[in-house]
Design goal:
alpha+beta; globular; 5-stranded antiparallel β-sheet; 4 helices; 13 strands
Length: 188
């Protein structure tokens, strides 16, 4: 077990990443490329084996297969050091894009538990674009599971202007939630 301690008041904790942030999207401009002409491929949801999301992302990146793995930054204090880690936003899920041959290559990898077909391609693309924009905004993001219907909201000003989602209320107050309906999860 790791001992967690708080830094002494006269010495601020040092930030130390365990690993540098790895690519969460391949190619880097995946969403820009798919904006106008999708090129004949389709989105599919990849259900991974437990804790295999980043390993699969590394393999797909090396193979040049298009994918999206939403990652968020988490900071923890261990022995007076702030440790920065990048974790999958949706545990056990990532998103692939391609034709039938690409899907066949992905499903044969040992990290993959199954592939889920997507009926509404445009909706998933739109939700993933909005999610990528939220994650790249610099705002703190947390995962939200098993979302329930709530009041719709549209951000009208600031760096996230134009994003639409829902407002939910919890113990901490009101939150703006962006959903990926297909996997019934979201980010706030």
């Amino acid at each position: 077990a790791l001992a967690v301690t708080v830094a002494a008041p006269n010495r601020p904790p040092r930030s130390m990443p365990i690993l540098e942030k790895e690519p969460s999207c391949a190619p880097d401009d995946l969403f820009e490329r798919l904006q106008g002409d999708p090129g004949g491929g389709q989105w599919f949801v990849i259900r991974t084996r437990p804790r295999m999301e980043k390993a699969l992302a590394r393999e797909l990146y090396a193979a040049g297969s298009p994918f999206y793995l939403p990652l968020y930054e988490d900071r923890k204090v261990y022995q007076r050091r702030v440790v920065v880690v990048f974790l999958p936003l949706f545990s056990g899920y990532m998103f692939g894009y391609g034709d039938d041959q690409t899907r066949d290559r992905v499903v044969r990898r040992r990290e993959v538990a199954s592939l889920l077909p997507v009926d509404d391609q445009e909706r998933l693309r739109s939700e993933l674009c909005a999610l990528d924009r939220l994650l790249n905004s610099g705002e703190p993001v947390t995962a939200e599971e098993r979302l329930e219907a709530g009041m719709p909201a549209l951000i009208t000003q600031g760096p996230l202007a134009g994003l639409s989602g829902q407002v939910i209320e919890n113990r901490g107050g009101m939150k703006f939630v962006l959903q990926v309906q297909f996997i019934q999860q979201g980010a706030s």
